[in-house]
Amino acid sequence: MYAIAGLTIILTLTLLMITISLWLPHTSPDTEKTTPYECGFDPLGTARLPFSMRFFLVAILFLLFDLEIALLLPTPWAINSPTPSNTLNYALTVLALLGAGLVYEWSQGGLEWAE
After folding, report:
1. pLDDT (tens digit, 0 to 9) for every residue of the chain, 115 residues total?
2. CA dist., res. 84 & res. 82, Å (int)
3. Per-residue exposure over 84-94, b if at least 16 CB sit within 10 Å of its own CB, e if not
4. Residues contacting residue 86 through CB under 8 Å, at least 6 positions apart
């Protein structure tokens, strides 16, 4: 009984919000709002310049090492488990793999900004 009433209220509110959101924002964009910067000045070049692949590589490496910290953060507490040697082996394996990947990227010149 209460579930049907709650479902009815939820559906009614959802349909009401959808109707209001489709009915209210009838705006006509002008030329300044359709420019890439929306601040009124004419851009000097195109707004769709491609990023360098080096930027993406460094960003992905940053995320990878940030996740490594999140993975290794519980290691001190896991040392108190019944098998601390397994915990240390897993942590050292993660560090060794990430270190080997970093050394490989460094040796290939992937971390240099200038070519």
Report:
1. 788 899 999 999 999 999 988 888 766 767 666 666 656 566 666 666 677 777 787 788 888 888 888 888 888 888 888 888 888 898 899 889 988 988 998 898 877 766 5
2. 6
3. eeebeeebeee
4. none
Q: What is the dihedral of CA 59, 61, 64, 69, to 10 degrees?
A: -100
> Is residue 54 exposed (0-12), middle (13-18) or buried (19+ Cβ within 10 Å)?
middle
For residue 5, give Cα distances in angstroms to 1, 2, 12: 6, 5, 11
Please tell me the pTM assigned to this model.
Answer: 0.48
